[in-house]
């Protein structure tokens, strides 16, 4: 029985990237670029900077937007702007190199292959990061893709985007800034007294939580944790031993110092205003 040849459809990964780690600064920068985009632009495209770790993980640490224009069948990038921004970034962080590109929107689009082809000439195995700033599924979805070559036998046919795992975790120092930036937009910035009031309310809430936890442990409703108990003990021991009169005096002294600074600042502004008016009058006369 004669054997027949079969044409095999193959997916050949053109990338050794296994996963990607995205720092929160990158996400906030992409969202900021989207808010500041031109009125006629539907999405924002830009370059991702970072490094590739020995295990194949892409560490994305920085980004910048690249001006572009696109239609249904073509995309035009400002290549000169891209190279100038890259040169400026590498003067500050010479270890950061191009690791891919980003775009806003839900998933990949028809023009993504053209842009990915350009970044494939800028770096080997670029990663494509998408940030859904339109909250299509009710959340800002962040996904990463790499290019996979689709071929029939030995003949390359097309390129396909394959999703890779993303690590969006952050260190404690980054979490502090993240918690500040992710807060809901307010109508106005709080003044000193409003900020102090909000801080005191937060402190009282935390004290109530600690008090409830200690009470639950004493009553046997919650199992004890030696680490938490030691931390609470060290925190209480670090507080200065002040009587109610000393505490009131400390608060009043601090408040008087702040009022004095406000008075001096107001007095300085008034003197500068008088000096400016006198100089204007002298020039006129």
TrEMBL record:
<dbReference type="GO" id="GO:0001732">
    <property type="term" value="P:formation of cytoplasmic translation initiation complex"/>
</dbReference>
<keyword id="KW-0963">Cytoplasm</keyword>
<comment type="function">
    <text>Component of the eukaryotic translation initiation factor 3 (eIF-3) complex, which is involved in protein synthesis of a specialized repertoire of mRNAs and, together with other initiation factors, stimulates binding of mRNA and methionyl-tRNAi to the 40S ribosome. The eIF-3 complex specifically targets and initiates translation of a subset of mRNAs involved in cell proliferation.</text>
</comment>
<dbReference type="InterPro" id="IPR024969">
    <property type="entry name" value="EIF3F/CSN6-like_C"/>
</dbReference>
<comment type="subunit">
    <text>Component of the eukaryotic translation initiation factor 3 (eIF-3) complex.</text>
</comment>
<keyword id="KW-0396">Initiation factor</keyword>
<dbReference type="GO" id="GO:0033290">
    <property type="term" value="C:eukaryotic 48S preinitiation complex"/>
</dbReference>
<dbReference type="Pfam" id="PF13012">
    <property type="entry name" value="MitMem_reg"/>
</dbReference>
<dbReference type="GO" id="GO:0003743">
    <property type="term" value="F:translation initiation factor activity"/>
</dbReference>
<feature type="domain" description="MPN">
    <location>
        <begin position="20"/>
        <end position="151"/>
    </location>
</feature>
<dbReference type="GO" id="GO:0016282">
    <property type="term" value="C:eukaryotic 43S preinitiation complex"/>
</dbReference>
<dbReference type="Pfam" id="PF01398">
    <property type="entry name" value="JAB"/>
</dbReference>
<dbReference type="GO" id="GO:0008237">
    <property type="term" value="F:metallopeptidase activity"/>
</dbReference>
<dbReference type="InterPro" id="IPR037518">
    <property type="entry name" value="MPN"/>
</dbReference>
<dbReference type="InterPro" id="IPR000555">
    <property type="entry name" value="JAMM/MPN+_dom"/>
</dbReference>
<dbReference type="GO" id="GO:0006413">
    <property type="term" value="P:translational initiation"/>
</dbReference>
<comment type="similarity">
    <text>Belongs to the eIF-3 subunit F family.</text>
</comment>
<keyword id="KW-0648">Protein biosynthesis</keyword>
<dbReference type="GO" id="GO:0031369">
    <property type="term" value="F:translation initiation factor binding"/>
</dbReference>
<dbReference type="GO" id="GO:0071541">
    <property type="term" value="C:eukaryotic translation initiation factor 3 complex, eIF3m"/>
</dbReference>
<protein>
    <recommendedName>
        <fullName>Eukaryotic translation initiation factor 3 subunit F</fullName>
    </recommendedName>
</protein>
<dbReference type="InterPro" id="IPR027531">
    <property type="entry name" value="eIF3f"/>
</dbReference>
């Amino acid at each position: 029985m004669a054997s027949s040849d079969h044409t095999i459809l193959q997916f050949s990964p053109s990338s050794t990237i296994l996963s990607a780690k995205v720092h929160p600064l990158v996400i906030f920068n992409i969202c900021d670029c989207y808010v500041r985009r031109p009125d006629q632009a539907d999405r924002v495209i830009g370059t991702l900077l970072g490094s590739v770790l020995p295990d194949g993980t892409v560490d994305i640490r920085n980004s910048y937007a690249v001006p572009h224009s696109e239609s249904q069948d073509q995309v035009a990038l400002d290549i000169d702007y891209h190279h100038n921004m890259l040169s400026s970034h590498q003067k500050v962080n010479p270890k950061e190199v191009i690791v891919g590109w980003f775009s806003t929107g839900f998933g990949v689009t028809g023009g993504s292959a053209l842009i990915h082809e350009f970044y494939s000439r800028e770096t080997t195995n670029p990663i494509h990061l998408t940030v859904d700033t339109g909250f299509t599924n009710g959340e800002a979805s962040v996904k990463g893709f790499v290019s996979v070559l689709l071929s029939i036998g030995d003949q390359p046919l097309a390129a396909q985007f394959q999703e890779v795992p993303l690590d969006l975790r952050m260190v404690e120092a980054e979490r502090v800034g993240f918690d500040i930036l992710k807060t809901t937009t307010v109508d106005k910035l709080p003044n000193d007294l409003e900020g102090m009031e909000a801080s005191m309310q937060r402190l009282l809430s935390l004290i109530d939580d600690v008090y409830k936890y200690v009470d639950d442990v004493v009553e046997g409703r919650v199992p004890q944790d030696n680490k938490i108990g030691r931390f609470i003990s060290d925190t209480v021991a670090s507080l200065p031993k002040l009587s109610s009169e000393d505490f009131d005096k400390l608060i009043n002294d601090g408040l008087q110092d702040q009022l004095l600074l406000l008075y001096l600042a107001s007095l300085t502004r008034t003197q500068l205003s008088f000096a400016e008016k006198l100089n204007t009058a002298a020039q006129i006369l």
